[in-house]
Amino acid sequence: MDFPYLTRFQPVILSLFRFVTGLLLFQYGVAKLFKFPVLPYFANIPPLIWTAGAIELVLGALLMLGLFTRLTAFILSGEMAFAYFMGHMFKGETPVFLPLLNGGTAAILFCFACLYLSAAGGGSVSVDAAMGKESDAGGGAYARR
């Protein structure tokens, strides 16, 4: 089934997807670094998790703005892949492969959402588009062909 009437909204919906993804990552950075909201598993974090929080805070903000979207999203995708393997899959003595069992569902979803954004760009409502670095036509990689 095709929905051709939605095609015209694709660049704006891509921008909304980018903003919400950045906002969700930003909230993890705020929770890890500033302890707001107070969560028991972010009470006394090691330096590696603190670094991840700093990356999520700064790059999540850039993603929300749509500034340097492709590079920002690519770095965040790598960070989320690292978070899944180091923080979820291999956190015990034996690897736990299933995301439902190791709590890594969000990390996988963020990884692939950011990987998509690194290929698609920030959409028509972004600082990149305002500076002329993104095409308004398709909001991404195929618009430049």
Topology:
Elements: H1 4-7, H2 10-34, H3 47-65, H4 69-89, H5 99-102, H6 105-120, H7 127-130
Helix pairs in contact: 2-3, 2-6, 3-4, 4-6
Oligomeric composition of the shown chains:
single chain
Shape: globular
Q: What level of helicity do the residues show? A: 55-70%
Count of separate DSSP helical elements: 7
Summed over residues and divided by their number, the pLDDT gives a mean of 91
The biggest beta sheet reads: none
What is the helix/strand order? Answer: HHHHHHH
Query: How many β-strands, per DSSP?
Result: 0
Given the helix and strand composition, which structural class is it? mainly alpha
Q: Kindly provide the radius of gyration, computed on alpha-carbon positions and rounded to a whole number of angstroms.
A: 17 Å
Report the portion of residues in β strands: under 5%
